Amino acid sequence: MIIVMRPYVSEDAVAEVIDLLADAGLDAEVVTDQDRPVVLTGAMESATTASLVGLDSVERVIRVEGPARLVSRAYSSKSSVIDASGVAIGGGTFIVIAGPCAVESKEQMLNTARSVAASGARMLRGDAFKPRTSPYAFQGLGEHALKIMADARDETGLPFTAEVLDPRHVELVASYADLLRIGTRNMSNYALLKEVGRQPKPVLLKRGRTATIEEWLSAAEYVYSEGNSNVVLVERGIRSFEHSTRNTLDLSAVPLAKGLSHLPVMVDPSHAAGRADLVPALSRAALAVGADGLLIDVHPDPKAAKVDGDQALLPAQFADLMRDLKAIAPVVGLAL
Asked: Which of 101, 209, 226, 278 could connect to 308 by a Cys-Cys bridge, CB 3.0–4.6 Å?
């Protein structure tokens, strides 16, 4: 059950609710969502519900089943719109975040940023810290990469997202990036989820490679329950028996997640396919199925890329894709 308090109620009013629940034998946890306390508790009898609804400090009582409560449609029937440094994610807009998987040099990043900005991308991607299967593979340039991304933002005006791998890096990445991104390997890193939930920057949360929809939404709940309601879900493919692609893009996850949750849902076709030739078709499909945006890998020289070059589009290919998406978006009622 969720007891939604009215905005700015007093601590005494919250304590009254907790005491009432305690009298009914129920434990309670209090979180804050946009300047209002929200009390989470277990199933309650109708008499307790009636007592709560009768309090002036209580706005509504919601029955929610399952672990994902605050991110559920039951909690908010209105779809959330996330503001990322002036760029709206959700709410009828379709945004494209583009750039290299990893920042390799200032020249590489600035050239890519200029080209994707000219083609209509609304945000940049480019990582400073890379979780690699091999400890000997390129791990990223660290803070130097974040400074390069900040330079690219200053020149193009595009906000940027960067992945954070470690709770100890959250403050550093948040001091530069406009959005923090949790990658597929860290979807179940609960310490990291809690830490990004304690800071105000929006969070892109990728679905784990083997995660169910429920597990994905539960991971979002970890962030949300710490006070950060600015969460965007990202479908990026799940591991299956198929080896023709890097992962299997689960397009059904988009309408499913949007039906179960009020959070925006984006798609990363680059990491799903692992092949640049499939990215345009998967991008068009993601738009058609109702996604709120895309994350696309773009690199000026994919063959020389230190990370995931096989899935990166050339700038000219990205420009062609953006023209296609701009033609399709009005058909499905979205603005790009």
From this structure: 101
